[in-house]
Amino acid sequence: MTETSRRRPWAVGLRTSPEGHRVTTFELFFDLVYVFAFTQVSHLVAETHSGRGMVQALTVLGLLWWTWTSYSWLANQSPADQGLLRVGMGIAMVAVFVATLSIPEAYEDLPGGLFGPLVLIVAYVVVRVVHGALYVVAAAGDAALRRQLVRTAVVAIVPSTALLVVGALVGEPAQTWIWLGAFSFDVLMTLLTGRRGSWRLYSPTHWAERYGLVVILALGESVIAVGFGASHLPVSWPVIAGATLSILIALMLWWIYFLKSAGAAERRLARLQGVERVEYATLAYTYLHFVLVASVVMVAVGIEEAMAHVGSDEPFGSFAAALLAGGLAAYLLGATVLVRSAREPWLWRRVAEAVLLVALVPVLAKLPARGALGLAAGVVYAFAVGAQLRARATARRA
Length: 398
Known about the structure:
Blueprint: H1 25-48, H2 51-77, H3 83-101, H4 116-138, H5 143-170, H6 174-194, H7 204-230, H8 237-271, H9 274-308, H10 318-341, H11 348-359, H12 361-366, H13 369-397
Helix pairs in contact: 1-2, 1-3, 1-7, 1-9, 2-4, 2-6, 3-4, 4-5, 5-6, 7-8, 7-9, 8-9, 8-10, 8-13, 9-10, 9-13, 10-11, 11-13
């Protein structure tokens, strides 16, 4: 079906995306607010230095992720470079930015000003309401899709949003667990209400590009963390060495995703049609990519901690070591599951690498920061080089 034949005059000028639709420049602009959001989440983790703080940060990141992925579905339904969608997504950008500004006060309101936790939730609600209204308009003429939107809103979005408001008003310590429960409920019920449902995914190319770009944004946070961590230090050989190791880790994360995992998933997505395509997009992208993005944010916090103490001989510490090694391990496992989801063989070397990184946490904790960075980078690159050598040997034998 051509793009012209998909035009619907009763849909307020909106048109349905064609099969080969690509990411628009407005979507790239829309994503800019999430760069700041990732930075704010990483700072929230760095300030708390606790497991509870990690739960809080991942919950806030999950809420932000849920807004981003909601608009990725909308932009696949209808191209975002249309007047009504630009206006609505512009409003959502402002709301996301307001929510991001309130992240430092998400769990502990600061004196003066508005009540931080409630500001975050109100902004979040605005983003979701605007998304729902735009999606209903974009789904004009598709009664099944509109019923799906209503069903998910009633069963998942409304109850979870009510819990978020309750958590903000109740405050700590219950707020942490109420918000975690609200987010988990939304995620679970959205999955259940959409099972074999009526969601649409028209362009696998757009979809794969969209999620590849958000991984790039998250990797950008790991690069920014290098600068933040060393911003108070004079330029020195330890700083240069730490920055080099940190960038090498970021480069390897890029390599792992884009040179193997992303292509396998996109090929699988393109081969599927209808409900099977939608369900694969939901599990492999909407859900699994949250693991990848959250992992990169964890690695970024570990890098920032390392760079802040890169000139010191004091031990790196258990918390920072767990973030750095645990984030790398979670990313490797997520990328491995993504490859397997595309019906390709398990990459057991990545699983072994992830296990080794977790086992090395006590060792990293006792090393100075630059030593911890060096060991983590060495492990990641040793496995990568070994894999490349084996691949070349196999190619020569073939």
